[in-house]
């Protein structure tokens, strides 16, 4: 046994000679498709390397058997919770903050509850997942907060930042495109091709880029070579690009886009037109009432839910008629 460290592919792991020689050989090839085919097959068989550890909920395959018509996927920071994670000190404070002291984006828990229920007279039982770049160590506190808000997701997916710290891969702490895109593709491959999606994110990171890239991939509008070039352009590391391209080899595309709507919460002052220029189903919003009004018009939530959100914004968060009137004009 020997210890091998290949920077752009794996961190220091123990391999036998056969695997080590294969990886070195693959590294010498110029064609990335050769490296995907050979490397991933051996690593899966031997189970000796966990590349990007994306831990989906353990019961997700059983959940997919329920064949919900809609899956809701939402970010957490600046989408569900009003959090400040711009600095290390702020991140530490957020990690230790008590669940009851965490501030929500006004009205958003009501919206999620309404979406899960559906807009019809019968209970729909849609599925909800949170996809976050936060570390899994925050899971318990976040679940407690969601319980306070009456939000019960089918699962939370976190980025295991501790792995990057242990291997001194500090640059990967801030890279989100590869991680979130790979998680979305894995969810898509588990659920039925007939499942629709509604995605929520914000403009503080790269959510609009990730979501738009996801929907273009699953509808077959861009091929693997183009995807690889785009990912390189956005600074996704080779290790992550290899895994994403491997997932695409067995991905079934659909002609009709299953992503019905993408909502991007404007938290950093981005312009609506810039966000919405990516695709026609992307809506940049400044408050939950905008999102709720659009979803109510499309019969995704009931009118009662829209009224509840409006009431909460006015009574608890001091939204005035002028602000809500601007929302009506936009929608």
DSSP strand content: 5-15%
Q: What is the correct CATH architecture of the largest domain?
A: 3-Layer(aba) Sandwich
Number of domains: 2
SSE series: EEHHHEHHEHEHHEHHHEHEHHH
What structural class do you assign from the helix and strand content?
alpha/beta
Named CATH topology of the largest domain:
Rossmann fold
Based on CA atoms alone, the radius of gyration comes out at 21 Å
Largest sheet composition: 6 strands, parallel
Helix content: 40-55%
Strand order of the largest sheet: 5-4-3-6-7-8
Q: What is the straight-line distance between the termini?
A: 63 Å
Mean pLDDT: 80
Describe this structure in a few short sentences.
With 331 residues, the chain is of the alpha/beta class.
Please provide a written account of the structure.
By secondary structure, the protein is α/β, with parallel strands linked by helices. It folds into 2 domains: 1-49, no CATH class; 55-330, Rossmann fold. It is built from 15 helices and 8 strands. It has helices at residues 17-28, 32-46, 60-64, 88-96, 108-117, 139-148, 161-166, 177-190, 207-218, 224-233, 238-249, 272-276, 288-297, 303-316, 321-330, and strands at residues 2-6, 10-15, 70-74, 127-131, 155-157, 196-202, 259-265, 282-285. The protein has a 6-stranded parallel β-sheet with strand order 5-4-3-6-7-8, with helices on both faces. α12 links the parallel β7 and β8 (282-285). α2 crosses α11. The radius of gyration is 21 Å and the shape is globular.
